[in-house]
Records
---
Amino acid sequence: MENSEIILLNINGEDKMGLTAALTEILAKHGAFILDIGQSDIHRNLSLGILFKSMNDNSGEIMKDLLFKAYEMDVNIRFTPISVDRYSNWVSMQGKNRYIITLLGRILTAKQIAAVSKIIAEQNLNIDNIVRLTGRIPLNEKERAAKSCVELSVRGTPNDRQQMQEAFLALSSELNFDISFQEESMYRRMRRLICFDMDSTLIQTEVIDELAERAGVGERVKAITELAMQGEIDFEESFRQRVKLLKGLDVSVMKEIATNLPITEGLDRLMKVLQKVGFKTAILSGGFTYFGNHLKEKYGFDYMYANELEIANGKLTGNYVGDVVDGKRKAELLRLIAQVERIDLRQTVAVGDGANDLPMLDIAGLGIAFHAKPKVKQNAGQSLSTVGIDGILYFLGYKDSMLDSKILNS
């Protein structure tokens, strides 16, 4: 070992103030060159790794001093010699594909983590790092947070990416949690625009169904809505049919519905964070401008596009004004807003639940099917179904420690 120039140093034990400083000072004193360093802390138990190269053929002296210091600070230390070939192979892996896999649910268990890890191994991927994004977990179940999230950083090239995605989707359904699989890149860490569908995404209802109930045609409109969301009929045609059935409804009903819209869990928290960190936000809805403007004003969205109902003598005419905001139009609007804001498409996020959202989910840098229909889940890049809409923050890589109320209110 004394003749080895490259040495991996592993330190484990109770975390103590100044430990890292003491060990790196020894390396500095002997002129050693640090090739890599990493540290983690679980329940005040430290795991520190340092890969170094002795520059003056004095590795024996370095290890002796490190051993004495480790004994003095009551931690375990282990030395592993690394050959030049092994180190070179490790360096060559640097350019390999890197991915982020996020596990999110009301609760995460060993069973879920084990199942995901098995798929990762079967796909010939290696886990580099694991980080918990949600807060520390109290033993008292009543005190636990409403969600749990773990982020895995993996490296390599999947044997079959499509098969892996399908396996993740099946697993998430079976074990009731969400899995996000994203390529790690600078764009993932620099998202700047997020576009939302409105009905059944920002709000927990389809407004057109609410209007139809008041007009006495609820069941007829709901049936058409469901076919449209499932992608069974063309959205524009379904929209025309449903609006026609609303003819004669008094506009005062719209104010009543808007005032009592059931807001999706987590929207307040999500919007506060997005605005705090500088995101541009947009509502791109196949619903109606009246309700979109209500949400825009309430939550401070930067943009809002939806469909305009025609009104005459205080009643709906059964017609609409202008072009329908369908799936194709949503994708066009996302591109347009990104262009106006000078944002690369790879820095955009789109969130929606219906088949008419798929075009914008497909072109966005991160497309998220939120509490979506089965067809949408299967075709979207990511799916979020087990928690509130603020779960998006974890897909963006934010930790609960970053989202502390004191930080948000500062």
Note: The first strand starts at residue 6 and ends at 14.
---
Amino acid sequence: MATDILKNLVIEKLSTVYDPEIPVNVWELGLIYDIAFPKPDEIIITMTLTAPGCPIADEIVQQVHDVVMEIEGVSSVTVNLVFEPMWTPEKMSPVARLELGYDI
């Protein structure tokens, strides 16, 4: 599968994962910093959270892993949770900013 097609599928899957406290998905929130494809069937996702002390961090990371593993042909997904650079509301997409009432 071509990398650009696979990346679009990954983004589509990531768009189904929500922080239960925020009604916007992790992709639109800007929590996904990088999607890498070291091999055609291997994906490495670098992500953050809105706050380092998030009580459900493990659940969100597991959900990201699980939804991406659903993609046909993917045999390995690694999710790296980082806090540098720190997430800020400026990382949100215009859609997320509008939904959450931030000025665009």
Note: The first strand starts at residue 32 and ends at 39.
---
Amino acid sequence: MKELPLINRAHAYGKTAAIRSDSTEFTYEELLERSATLAATLLIDANDLDEARIAFLAPAGFDYVATQWAIWRAGGVVVPLCLSAADPELEYTLSDSETSSVVTTRELSTKVEALCQRLNIPLLIIEEMESASKNPLPEVDSSRRAMILYTSGTTSKPKGVVTTHTNNQAQIETLVEAWEWQATDCIPLFLPLHHIHGIINVLCCGLWKGATVETFPQFEIDTILNRVAADAYSLFMAVPTIYVKLISKLESLTDEERANIIHGFANMRLMVSGSAALPASVHEQWTDLTGQKLLERYGMTEIGMALSNPFHGERRPGAVGQPLPKVEIRLKSEKNELVTAEDEPGEIQVRGPGVFHEYWNRPEVTEESFDNGWFRTGDMAVIETGYYRIMGRLSVDIIKSGGYKLSALEIEAVLLQHTAIRECAIIGLPDDTWGEKVAAAVVLEEGEMLDIEALRSWCRDKLSNYKLPKQLLIVESLPRNAMGKVTKPAIRELF
């Protein structure tokens, strides 16, 4: 019987450890057996789920993967649910995707039981799914819909991003080639499994190549660092926030306590940062601590990964590298003209086999999101000596001031280098003269004070390479009330 490539490849890995959780190992052979049983249970008397949407709620681990594979093997479309989602979010996802059934563990069933009853959606418990059926599973063509992931919904209600098996395979093969995945690899997985980062970049890439994925229900820093010290991993993928937490933890340890941890990180063949901009200062701190140069990349739910710093070659702090294999990238100006020169900003547009199929039940939005076959990401970037650098979202991160397009992300990264500043956010304030003025809200480190004159001088030096009109404003302090809540800050001119 013809099987989906991801499933078919697993037969060759047999008794190799596929998933490791809580010191328990599950082989590829066990994964195939269990997913076949679950698939038969899902089918009941049907021959094929025919792209029925099956939502599932499971922690990272063997049950998660077995359920995901079972839905695919039965011909369904997976709709992974967020473990921390509240009832309204879950209800929206189930209703919008027109889910036909929900699969979950016995432990998590209480989270969705009442909701499923209210929506009249069958609820299946993984531990109770045992089928005596010996009917063959359907042949599932790769052109079929495979998965619906929901966007964050920052500007409107979340949209269901539909990918086919072909789309997913292209995304996987791109990263396996670019980052040279190997069957001997072992990687920890602590990222959310309702997002593309954890599902495709870590889980599916690892299982495609016959590697071992060690799963955690969440980011358990001490447990993971103990495993790093034991030299357990060859790859590591995380978001910038996690690297900041790791730096803080390592700096709190004595030289003796962190020696083996540093050794474990240094021995890894690849460490990747993604899902948010990585401040250059964090990039440099991590290299100074561990000797590892983080590989930063750029992608999104609709396109998978599109740009990446090279596995071999310069990994430039603050840049996301160059197009990945089989991915085409172009920049379009606000005047709808192709940007060919370096240092000129334009919207990133992407074309390739990994680009998603559609937004679920939103044909008009889908059509509007493409420009003659190129997906419009809504992100601005520039090319600098061959490398792309992300400036931010067109809608919120690009500040138009004095004829310049300023990146809020860049200015935030600079201000975060100040020793007194722990957090900051850059926004544009309306201004009759400049269009928008740049403003910064900052949270200070414990016990620190901002001397505004010294900060003005520091900023002039640090921001001298930026084409900034000298209208930068900064919050001098964020006073807090008795309840610890941030009160309205006073904004003062920096220059």
Note: DSSP finds 14 helices and 27 strands in the chain.
---
Amino acid sequence: MASIKPSVPKGTRDFSPIEMVKRNLIFDTIKSVFRKYGYQQIETPTMEKLDTLTGKYGEEGDKLIFKILNSGDFITDAKIDSSNINLNFKKLTPLISGKALRYDLTVPFARYVVMHQNEITFPFKRFQVQPVWRADRPQRGRYREFYQCDADVVGSPSLLNEAEFIMIYDEALSKLGLKDFTIKINNRKILSGIAEVIGKADNIIDLTVAIDKLDKIGLDGVIKELLEKGFTEADIEKLKPVILLDGSNSVKLHSLRDALADSPIGLKGCDELETVFNYITNCPLQTATLELDITLARGLNYYTGAIFEVKTNEVAMGSIGGGGRYDDLTGMFGLKDLTGVGISFGADRIYDVMEELNLFPTTTNQTTKVLICCFDSEGETFALPLLHSLRKNNINAELYPAGAKIKKQMEYANNKAIPYTVLIGSDEMQSGLLAFKDMTSGLQEKLSAEEIVKLLL
């Protein structure tokens, strides 16, 4: 049998112990901020029913859902024969695939809320840190398998929730060491108002999908796409001043109120944004710049109010977080009139940003802090009480099994970046003073077991 060259699917990765230390730092930091704001953790299955996911992300999003073939003889079970084998993929897929890998954490969360509504205390504030899958084209900062760190609150219409999500982004990313990032905010009601004012209320999805691409394809690209979707030159002339709004958040809001004077829904969006800005005025941000960006649309069908997106200004990278208000998401699963708002951290992109900016600490409590080295089995037995004491005091410690040369044991410590070693030979056992070495400075001293424990606490 020919040997198979080991590899992983494009857009997926293995993570080494060093990488996992860094990833856990990100996850633990974000989780700690979520908990501080009253959010509780849940988990949902890796796969969902296909009909749970489809129709929730727009036509472009649906194309990126990874479908799972039915187990067994899916062709026979689906009764596929010459009469239906030529069906297009949209009609064929449900026949041979009833499940899919989750595309995000928000839709499964909405499904969870509906299924567990009688057990939940509302408003329900949850966070979730799990992988998601998208059949996207892999590129820098974009993977097919990646983790999301989501927080959502359902059952509360208060705009204080939106303001707190801005604070959560600011606090978590500041704790991770980012020094220059922008939290962009918009409101889908304003976008609906713009479509209403130019007489294109029925084309709101086409409008939002197009202007959301402004950063990627430029104004000319957006105009070209809108023209292809049936917008006229006159429509676009009305849109241009709004799309290209400039100035402070208050100046932009003032301009929007003028432009949307004949649109009640557009003005309501302006009022909601102003309320969020007022909350933030009373709770000043530590690091983030909060910016009203009218071109932010996030092209997802389920957003109905505020929309968020976070971008770092220190590294060329796509968004590192995003989210928004969704007033009707759970209605798709039979639970009407339950409003919600949520955000997501793009952990993999945050990792890449931190790596590029060298923000990860060189020392960490997630790796071994001290390695005990001994010459023989007698030294190994002598070392066990010290090993037990170190671990009892929550100090990460290892005992290298007896029999290896000391040089090899020291190489092990260096390769694992273990900062301290303890050497136990016959002299050390006789005197009770052990050779304690700082592997970074090379400084070595004789200390008792109790002194070593106290020093490492």
Note: The domain at 370-456 is CATH 3.40.50.800 (Rossmann fold).
